[in-house]
Amino acid sequence: MSDHSQPTSPVHSPSSTGSPRAAVEILEPPSSGFAITETLRNLGTTVRSVISNFGQTSASVGSAMEVEAEDMEMDANDVVSAGPASPNSPSFGSVASLSGDGGRSEGFLSPRSDFTSRTLASHSPILAATSRRQLDISQFGTSRKGGIDHDDITLAGQAFSPRRRGDVQPSQSIDIARLLDSDVRLRDSGDRPRAIRDPAGAISYIAGSSISLLEVKVAFKDYLENFRMQMRKEKEGKEVNEEDLEPFYPRYLQKNMEMGDNRFNLDLQNLLAYPPTVKLYHHLIKYPHEILTTLDDVVTEVRPFNIGKSTNMRDLNPSDVDHLVSIKGLLIRVSPVIPEMTIGDQIDSQQIRLEITGVFRSTPMRVNPRHRNVKSLFKTFIDVVHIRKSDKRRIAADRESLENDPDMTYDESDEIRTDAEGDEARLIELSRRSDLYELLSRSLAPSIYELDDVKKGILLQLFGGNNKVFKRTAAPRYRGDINILLVGDPGTSKSQILQYVHKIASRGVYTSGKGSSAVGLTAYVSRDPDTRQLVLESGALVLSDGGVCCIDEFDKMSESTRSVLHEVMEQQTVSVAKAGIITTLNARTSILASANPIHSKYNPKLSIVENIQLPPTLMSRFDLIYLVLDKVDEHSDKQLAKHIVSLYVEDSPQTDENRFVPIETLTKYIAYARKHCKPKLHVDNNEAYQALVDAYISMRKLGENPRTSEKIITATTRQLESMIRLSEAHARMKLAEYVELEDVQEAARLLREAIKQYAWDPETGKIDMDLINTGQGTHERRILEDIGNALQELLRKKGGARTSWRTLLLELNEQSDLEITERQFETAARTLEQQGVLRITGNGAERTISI
Amino acid sequence: MFSLGDCIERPLDIAQLIFEQNWNPNRENCENQFGIPEYFQSVFENENDIYKIPSLNDIPVDQIQPNTLVRFRGMIQNTFLAVELYAPVHESLDRNGDQTWKLHRYQDYNDEEQRLDPNLEQQNSHFDEKCSFYVTSVPGETEWARKISFSIEHGFRSEYHQGTGTQDSIEGLTWQTASLSINNTDIDKRKKRIDSKYPFPNEKHIGVVVKIYEKDVSIKVTDVVEFVGVLEEHRPPPNADADGDGFVDPLALLSVPCIHSIFFRKIHPSGNPLLRNPSIERIVRENAREIRRELIRYIASVFCGDELVAEFLLLQLLSRVHSRRSGLILGKFSLNITNISSSATNSPMSSHTQLSSNSPSSTPIILTHKPYFSSTVSALLSSLLPLYHDLPLTLEILNNVFMYPRNLDADDGFLESGVLQVAEGTRLLIDETVLQEGKLGESGVRNVQAIEGILTQQKLGYAFPFHNFQYETDIGVIVLSNARSLLPCDCTIPLSPTDQSQSYQLNEELINSFRSYLSVLRYADYNIPEEVSLHIQNHYVNQRREAAKSGNALMTQDDLNFRMTLARLVTLSFNETMLTTELWGYTQSLDVSRQTRINQFQQR
């Protein structure tokens, strides 16, 4: 949408939404059809609307049903009298089905609408009832930007017609022998199909096309007899086993019959894999009404699914009207089933991801539901033919009935697509850059100066670790999402970072701690205005499932609200038990929170834990806790000032292209890595393995210090898990297959750096403010390592004797090409001290160092 | 080719003639404009010639012949109100039976004409689209700005009607014409609908639908644009209930005048008509320092002689958002003047609040300041600024008036305006002193959020049924409050009255120089030389080091940002284009004295 076109309404121009083909065009023969077509066009809308009205009322008010039904019948008769010449056409599913009763009249007006009778036809117990029900499906996640069309699509299954499939054609159920024995001979010993005799004696076509219904039937039967799984698997490059060489469908039908199931799930990918039916596949998508009714003559209740591409709800266009479409969404509401339950399973009101295959249809809106006037605006809905839960692990009914479930993984429609081949090559090239880590972290929130390590942590958070399920030990799922807490002085751009992440995360929700309630974060139960039924509405955490939830002002959050996070952050679910709904919702979200220290500003006189003052239960759930302190440091202050001043200089060439990756590339890269790369920790990689263990043990040791037992952030197994997650994320960033030593080292460094452990005096639990600098890059780290080594060397030369701080610094500077600042020297010395290599005694300039 | 008078009186005939010259039926290129806008633009190249076109801003619509050329200066309230498909070129037979081609641009389709030639098969394969924009009179345009632009356009000949003059009568007449042949309840309903498209409730204004034929239109909402085009014949609006087909074109229901735009031009964002005089910039620049001094004295006379507040207010009036870089909005400068109630001793603490509590529903809400002090500040600002409006922050207003534009019904695409949907550069004076304790409803909360959005992001969210779209804005906000404002302002300064009896003598020339000064310097160039940049860096580093030593609060990134903004404004106010170390020092001292004052008031 261009910039200036925004403040318009999201409504489509009404003229373009109209049904492309009038319902009656299917009438045959055309010669007698014209006049009637006109009449029907005029009356059709009215009658249809009455009928659907009938459907609605019957669903809600039982008594109103008869009244409306009479009304409808009258209308149907009107039509009959208006078109007495309606011919007894032999064409399938058309006027021939006209009879006086109300239900049939619908079939008369629109052969395709007979189709509505099985909109509910679903394999899943949720919908396996034959009465009408509405499903509201929402787009996954929150809509943050732009697009507006069809945000809310109502799926209306109108199964009020007396002609239900199972009832009407019971004799046609699964009798394979009969099917194969039918008088329509398909093939004559491998030859091409011969002329076929239709029982009705004439050949019917779908109006406005050259598709012969008979051909369709023949092709379909041929497919049923001859399709072998091998074809599909070969096409997809999968391994073929012996069973796949056998024709697939006879076995499938046999099994269906044994199960007493008369639903036939038709995987359209199979149809595509069988060369003679490729045409049928396309026909089915374009003329679902006609073709499906035809297929129903061959086998009962054909339910096509897996079209191969699912349309985003927002992308449904007028051109899709009356075509077979497949959409994916989150089931948000199910209207109650009123009469005629065939299966008594209770509705699972949990939020379910569904993939729905159905016919996209539109019906004119009415000005008033009680009047027959219609607007030229159309309400769109989907006549469902097939529903399945997108999440493969959850598939229940469908998988039992169909082993050949395609390898479909749930993919979010609001993710950034990385389709183009060139893109992929570019991303892979990017992944090979040696300074990848620095580059990406620098490109993250470029307006925020410094805070390199925070940015690195957030970068890893965006990449995320692996979700793990250990089947062998039956352990629960281990989360791969990384949670980060930023604690720091006011004015250190914490909120800005949060805002930035919120904007670029594939699904980000931003809340402020003070303004959030426990219910607002998780989920709440409310009464639906339409159906008077209790419904569950998602809160921020559930909405950010699969994304990042940013919580500002974490410290100002009330205790009770915060406690909700406990479950979310470890189990990654939200359990709701209120008002008759007991369920567990997924909330696989990373949390990025920011908080101020207990007295608004970091108090160096208190220990870290006292400053942060969060319950340890919660604190241990954060993988990284960053202390972002406003520390006076001449160098970085100057850099910062320079940065800000340059912003005010008009058109300054500040942003160097090579130094930053554009935000689009960054998000694309992250999306690509998340999708394609799942790095593992290899058992054989002893180095990485050992490094993890060592880092964990050293962290545990810090906690063991008896004098500080109360004040210390004790490492638990959670920290070990954090480290694994971070290493995985780091490996994923490099698009590597396995976690290497380097990844583990970086993860351990980040953990240490985050809480400023290197600057932390374990004796007092306080931070040595002189040691804090927030912007230490790899380059500097390398220098520091070199300095450390050189220092050790130097001390060793001196035999480990006490040497004064200053002398050492001077001597080192003499050796070195680069100037070593006092700060660098101090950091290096401190690190060595912590490693137990050397000892520092004294204070300030008086300090001496010895081994 | 054609005289100016012809162009004004018979624009459609002239368009037809130009069309015939440039049209080639075989080429079948209908998106072509046939050089018509270019031609009209060349005719009205001279500014004074444009002024000869009757303007809907000055003349009531019923006094202008339909199908003549008119112009209208207004703010775009809604872009793409509707997109119409039409046949730009139409084939017909003339009396001799010859085939002719007729241009159907710049007028709405005429049914009768089509019926004239039944013999012709209508095979019009050429279709084009025209877009309708809804344009209102510029919201917040101050009295003097209107007056001056009127007198410029009419060569100082005609008299501008004072006070409730032309504007009122025009709008009254607009109403009369709009409501011909409709009954009263309809008028009420329609008036309400039209009123809701103007940012400020219950104020007189003109609304016009402009149809634009150009493909590539760069107009955004809240742009101020002058359209020149053909006035459509007025038609009574269709009666919605009579034919009962349920769907009625929302445009037709509005029944406002309609202009078919031939060409348009954007008005300079300052909106100051004085700038049309090209020599004004030179005059301002030559006397900048003097004007600055006088202007501060003038402002201070209203603020009880407080020159520091006056200087900050002056800087506020010079501010604008000059760039948005990687999430930072540079140049925004909202000012919060605190300590109002105690200083404005001579204000008999507002009869307004009593009024509103007595009869909250019966009197229509009008956004004007009632307390003595804020109304004097309001008078000051409206005497200086071309675009200015009051915004008293009472609970009643917060709960009942909408601050943000919204489209409630997805079906009709009808975008109602909100107080904050104003043109770029408009100043709002928010009076928080009238705010009392009470319940803030849901719309009140949203309103406060919208104001906060302006203050922090300079972005205004337009509420659509299923989403919220954010537009960048540039609205200057000055908040008057007792204590620190509840709104997040960039700069807070307490008022410290010194001498209350001071008054200031004004003359026309002086006040005009003030007006030009503010408008010219607000858009002046600015740069920071390298050495000053270094100086600032060192200054920052040193300050932090010293603060750390003495244990004072550290200067943060935000503080530096604020001072950079301030330095820019100070530089501009002295008519300089380069920041110098002296100016930087001056900025520092200014901010320091502000902070000392804040500390003084906190201790009190």
UniProtKB/TrEMBL annotation, chain A:
Q: For this UniProt entry, what's an example GO CC term?
A: nuclear pre-replicative complex
Q: Look up the coiled coil feature and give its residue ranges.
A: none
SMART domains linked to this entry: MCM
Reaction catalyzed? ATP + H2O = ADP + phosphate + H(+)
Q: EC class of this enzyme?
A: hydrolase
Listed EC numbers: 3.6.4.12
The record's InterPro entries line, in alphabetical order, gives:
MCM, MCM_4, MCM_CS, MCM_dom, MCM_lid, MCM_N, NA-bd_OB-fold, P-loop_NTPase
GO annotation terms (biological process): DNA strand elongation involved in DNA replication; double-strand break repair via break-induced replication; mitotic DNA replication initiation; premeiotic DNA replication
Q: Where is the composition biased (Polar residues)?
A: 1-19, 86-97
The annotated region (Disordered) lies at 1-22, 79-116
Would you say which domain of life the source belongs to? Eukaryota
User: Which key words are in the record?
Assistant: ATP-binding, DNA replication, DNA-binding, Helicase, Hydrolase, Nucleotide-binding, Nucleus
Q: Which Gene3D superfamilies match?
A: mini-chromosome maintenance (MCM) complex, chain A, domain 1, P-loop containing nucleotide triphosphate hydrolases, Winged helix-like DNA-binding domain superfamily/Winged helix DNA-binding domain
Subcellular localization is given as:
Nucleus
- What GO molecular function annotations does the UniProt record carry, in alphabetical order? ATP binding; hydrolase activity; single-stranded DNA binding; single-stranded DNA helicase activity
Q: Which family does the UniProt entry place this protein in?
A: Belongs to the MCM family.
Subunit note: Component of the MCM2-7 complex.
Report the protein's function.
Answer: Acts as component of the MCM2-7 complex (MCM complex) which is the replicative helicase essential for 'once per cell cycle' DNA replication initiation and elongation in eukaryotic cells. The active ATPase sites in the MCM2-7 ring are formed through the interaction surfaces of two neighboring subunits such that a critical structure of a conserved arginine finger motif is provided in trans relative to the ATP-binding site of the Walker A box of the adjacent subunit. The six ATPase active sites, however, are likely to contribute differentially to the complex helicase activity.
Matches recorded under PANTHER family: DNA REPLICATION LICENSING FACTOR MCM FAMILY MEMBER, DNA REPLICATION LICENSING FACTOR MCM4
Q: What is this protein called?
A: DNA replication licensing factor MCM4
Automatic annotation (TrEMBL), chain B:
GO BP annotations, alphabetical order: DNA-templated DNA replication
Which protein is depicted?
Answer: 7462_t:CDS:1
Keywords from the named record: Nucleus
Say if the entry is tagged with keyword Mitochondrion.
Answer: no
Pfam families named in the record:
MCM_bind (PF09739)
UniProt organism field: Paraglomus brasilianum
The lineage's top-level taxon is Eukaryota
Which cell locations does it reside in?
Nucleus
Q: What is its main location?
A: nucleus
- Give the CC-aspect GO terms: nucleus
Any one Gene Ontology MF annotation carried by this entry is:
chromatin binding
